[in-house]
Amino acid sequence: MEQHLFVLLCITAVVASFFVVIPSNYLQHLPPYINVCVTVFGVLTLLLLAEARRGRYHTTALFFLFLALMNLIWFPNGASDGSLPLYFFCLLMYLPIFFRGRARWLPLLLTSIDAAALMALELRFPQWVTPFASEQDRMADNVVGFAVTTVCCAVMLWSLLRSYEKEQTRLVAVNEELERVIVERTAVEGALLQNRELLNSVIDGTTDAIFVKDISGRYLLFNEAACHMTGKGQDQVLGRDDREVFDSEVAAAIMEVDQEVLNGNQAQLMERKLRAGSGEQYLVEVIKGPLHNKEGQVVGLFGIARDVTQSRRMAEELRLLNEELERRVVERTARLEAAMKEQEAFSYSVSHDLRGPLRHINSYGSILLEEFGPELAPEARGYLERIRTSSKRMGDLIDDLLELSRIGRSELSRVTVSLSELAFGIGCKLQDAEPERRVDLLIEPGLQVEGDRLLLELMLENLVGNAWKYSSVRERARIELGCCVLGDRDAFFVKDNGVGFDMAYQDKLFGAFQRLHGAEFEGTGIGLATVKRIVERHGGAVWAQGVVDQGATVYFTLPRV
């Protein structure tokens, strides 16, 4: 504020000197000496203004320059009869604005002494005073002096009031900011207090022992779990170091690790055996790390200890259990391999040893029919035909059993398989075998899955073959292969309009040797069991729906491409 006001006063003094005082003095016919002094004052004030523009404010120089001008023109300008006493008001207002503390009283005393001395000299030597030429000149001089004084005082007063308003506004803003900061600080302190209480609750509520030490090793924090683990109370630990809390041997080991953490400025994980207050020994897992202040300096360390006695015991028991399980798995694998070898031997026996007697039965039955057929009674020939039919059916059962056993042992060779193409080929073979039948084979194109081609072909041969067989009672059969959405999954289906089945027996449908129809339909009862095993080996599922004399639908899921 003072700097801005100083510039305004310099400008006002220069303008008043050159454009008001000097012209009025000239019109009043005052001595030229006065105008010379005022001119020098104006020039010097211009120099002070130029200095102020450069950031150098000579407020004291302007005061003494103005006081010197007052003394130089006091007597030539009519002394106390003129306007000069009015200018002393400018000086008296100037002093409290630009001077502070003790520096204010000396100029004030000097101004008072100077004014008193001029008045005393005027009284003592009235002949020194140059009177005005007329009363009108004196009045004009007083008017000019009053106007200039008023302008200067108004400038200073306006600047003071403006500064006061700004300061008042700033203080109001600062006060509001302080109130906001106080409110925020109160809220922060409340939040910090709440967080501290929450943290203390967590620290005291956890089952892990938590402690904090200063740089000298004295305990600053020791929670309830640590007290329970060591058998020491907080009054026995806080403010003390390890030598005052533990045995000398244990304390030395703990302090050695603490020193390594502090020197290395890095957390460490270790295990240590301790003895509780009851004398029971237990194993604890401890992590220790350095504490830093805002400057990053190490000011202490923290530690978290957990009783791992039970977990280590359980880990050891689990290790022993795993070893036992591995041993049992090895034994079970050996027994399984032996069982598989026995099954392979059984399959070989079924495939070769049982087929020999069946071939003999068929051969001797055929010889009897060929050589002694005419001599046999019709009833005997019927018995021989039944023997041949039964032995052939038994051979088919053996073949199906071997095929079912092979499906469970064979390794899958997964490739992209087109079910549409396989079904079309199977349908063509069936139609060639029975060209007299009228069958509509509807196959949805583009049905591709990922799986073993040979097994999937065998699966479709059974499904399409069953549909072909059980729809033979229809004058115009209909067999359909397609894909649909059931619930949240895609499913393939083979549908026919044949004899169907009773849903009450659906749980027997996919079992081996389970037949829901009589001898009018040939078969061994292995087909759908084979289908189920193939689908399950591919990770899918199979089920069926049917209505008696209205057809059946077999659904199955397979991994799609």
From TrEMBL:
Residues in PAC domain copies: 268-320
EC number in record: 2.7.13.3
Domain Histidine kinase: 349-561
Gene3D superfamilies registered for this protein in UniProt: 1.10.287.130, Histidine kinase-like ATPase, C-terminal domain, PAS domain
Coiled coil: 308-342
Transmembrane segments: 5-26, 32-50, 57-76, 82-99, 143-161
UniProt-listed PROSITE patterns: HIS_KIN (PS50109), PAC (PS50113), PAS (PS50112)
Catalytic activity: ATP + protein L-histidine = ADP + protein N-phospho-L-histidine
Keywords for this protein: Coiled coil, Kinase, Membrane, Phosphoprotein, Transferase, Transmembrane, Transmembrane helix
Domain PAS span(s) in chain numbering: 195-265
Pfam family, any one: HATPase_c
Keyword Chaperone attached: no
UniProt cross-references to CDD domains, sorted A to Z: HisKA (cd00082), PAS (cd00130)
Domain of life: Bacteria
UniProt key word Transcription regulation: no
NCBIfam families found in the cross-reference section: sensory_box
Identification of the protein by name: histidine kinase
Natural source organism: Geomonas propionica
